[in-house]
Amino acid sequence: MLSLGDAGGGARPMELFPQHSTDEAVRAQLAKTRPEQFFPAASDPQAAMSGLCIYFGCLDEAHALVQDSATRDGMYWHAIMHRMEGDIGNSGYWSHRVGPHPVYPRLQREAELLGYRAHGGWNPSAFAAFCESAPGTSREDLAKRIQLAEWQLLFDHCAAPAAAGGAASV
């Protein structure tokens, strides 16, 4: 069984632009586990596993899992991965390919409750720009809290059993 160390129950804030894995032992365990083993009932196990890799700052591993994804979920993780590596333009490209995603309405509500104004619906490119400008400012904590809410919503969506509304191809 995969032991995820001190994962914080999915509530540990993540760096906006992680430079390395937060837990090398977990990184090694993730590398040895096929997505279907960890998420056997998910409609897109690779997308769910990519989200898990992102949570632990394993951006290269996350990228490998979703590089050729044809699902909205996989492309969304791809956009997040590029945002977190600081490639805002590439993040925008993948966000555009995602189109409307089922987690956007709830993410917008969560972000607004935290104090972020998402005018006219959730805009992942605007959020990427917000993240890019946040380090070292009073907005950094807000960006991290929204990023965590985004991660939690998308991860829960992806890891849910397929019958509960899994990944849709575009």
Mean pLDDT: 90
- State the helical fraction: 55-70%
Q: Which sequence of SSEs, written as H and E, runs from N to C?
A: HHHHHHHHH
Main beta-sheet strand count, sense and barrel state: none
* Radius of gyration, in angstroms, nearest whole number: 15 Å
Separate helix tally:
9
Hey, roughly how much beta strand do the residues contain?
under 5%
What is the rounded distance between the termini? 33 Å
**Structural class, please?**
mainly alpha
Low-confidence stretches are none
Query: What shape does the CA trace take?
Result: globular
Total strands:
0
Would you kindly provide a written description of the structure presented here, covering whatever features stand out?
This protein is mainly alpha-helical. Helix content is 57%, strand content 0%. It has helices at residues 24-32, 35-38, 45-55, 59-66, 72-84, 88-98, 104-114, 124-133, 140-159. The chain is globular. It starts with 23 loop residues before the first helix and ends in an 11-residue tail after the last helix.
Task: Write a brief structural summary.
The chain is built from nine helices and no strands. The chain is mainly alpha-helical and 170 residues long.
